[in-house]
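Issue: copy button drops trailing tokens. Both records pasted manually instead:
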Amino acid sequence: MKILIVCNQFYPAIGGVETHILNLVERFIRDGSSVKVISSVSTDGKKSGEIKGVSYRKFRGFKMFGIDAATIIPNMPSFLYKNISKYDVVHVHSYGYFVSWVTILICKIKGKKVIYTPHYADETTLPKFIKTIYDFCFAGWSFRMATSIIALTQTEKRILIQKFHVQPKRIHVIPNGIEMPKNKTAITLDEKKRILSKYRLNPNFKTIITIGRIAKNKGQIYLIKAASNLQNLNVIIIGRDWGEKDRLIRYVKENKIKNIFILENISDLDKIKLLSIADVFVLSSIASEAFGIVLLEAMSNGVPVVASNVGGVSDLIVEGKNGYLVRPGNVDEIERKIKLILGSEKNNKMRQFCLDYVSNFDWDNIYLKIKNVYTTD
């Protein structure tokens, strides 16, 4: 099977969508399919090549009004129009981008099968009038033109039906996946001491962790504010800076908050080790969480979560079992739920529930479900 994946950014760009696509295409390659990825130029600056067996082509674009979602890629449509007939399946990712709707339009003109995974969340940091215009001009018909739509959650499916009038029978609910740890063993005491020492964490404190782009919509500022009201905590923020880091550092200094650690460049192995010693994972986003794959990463390490009730996040939380939901930007609720987990007598039960729960999201099983959409729709 010859597959074309079209997305806004591709590996080594980091994010939930990028991780989703990489896991998916790796499995198609392993299964004997030919895969090509088309995207905008991302962090590595390369225009073409091969990553992990996946051929890619990246096009230079430019942002209108400084808005990432309004990135126009002039040379992509002609390339797609000339080459799209070579592929058996075209799979488009991410609502709100030029690459999405223009590819779906070309597929419709060419009579090509196109699968659309919008990773849709109603909350966004875009100005409301811009989102309204985009939804009116592009989103509705692009949803309706796609051969099939893969929604990550039941919440997403419900929104697509109610807001964009997509026929329910054309929507498949297939959640995000996670690479399940193979033969994972508990971290040793010596290894825990090493990782605490390496990142200068206080070994006598509980550890709170969050992972994601350091950006305004991720709401790390609300976690910091909540932590400032608590004592004896290490707070670790892991992610690449998307313009918010300086603001966070300034707030920490001005308010003399201790034990806040912002880590931009750490290895995947250390990230996993930091997760494994964490007591609570916090996702304090105020917008744009279609799913929240980092929640599954935390749970796969037995870490209960506190998460903002945005997008499809609520579909992942079994209240009081693997964590708690909070209202976006509500510092008091974040603080209260962190304390609830740290002080809970059933903490060990929560950890075990997390480990059992994530087994439902094994990428190998998710891949088979997506493959079935490719071959049957």
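Record 2 (pasted manually too):
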Amino acid sequence: MANRKRGSRSRRGGNSYRNAILISASAFIVLGGIGGFGFAGYQYANTERADENLCFARHNQHQTAIWIDYSLQGMTSAQLRDYMAGALGAYDRTPANGRVMVVTTGQSAHGNLPMPVFTICKPAATEAEQQALGIPVEGKPQRDRTVTVARTTFIKAMEQVIASAGDKDQQAKASPILEQLRAVSRADWYQGASTRSFLAITDGIENSKVGKFCFQKGDMPPFASFSAKPQYQWVKPSAFADTDVRVLLVEMDVNLLYCTNAELRQWWRDYFAGNGAASVDVIPLQPGVGS
């Protein structure tokens, strides 16, 4: 089960993490060439081409964001499998040509303006989807290869990202969850869509100047009371309107001094619902003490 530590960390793992993601992106291009799609599949005169992430630019393109909290330690293999299952589910639920973006709080990616470490668009799987999008219609064998290679590439990239979640050099020193969610909700790359999806993988324990949830008495009142505090205005996100939210809540196996796991689940339901989410589903991973 995951335990949280806040000591200082070396950053020598940063380059390897960035390289791992770049390798995944390169593999996508190489696999595309082998599979007979990618640029080669769209190199016809006067034919619209997908970009390097297999995306066709469209107004109100669906956006799926997968946000992974790197402040956890000691994650079990079962938890890591849950992370992959959750991420893959988010990809599979994304509509054709929807943009899937992966964001982490890892040391080499962490910042006040978080950027995706990996982006890919889910290819159209049927002729009807291609026609609806107004993109070149391929034969079924070609289309199936594109779909298979894109999904495989997403899995490979997520394996790299999830493996890095257990890298001590990547783990975040603190856990400013509210600050990160505010930044993602306002990011340029997560705007302009008519529908959005958001997957958060976290233990939900804020640990910053705004509050130390569960370990500082009074720092995690019910969301209605917390949102009335003056400091909440510094971390209030843009509305999650038209966004389906799913939270994989990693529950701790340590004594939570001033909250229970049940209270944490309800707090995050209220947070997202209170900020306009179209739907909220909080899924506990391996409930621990305090359930």
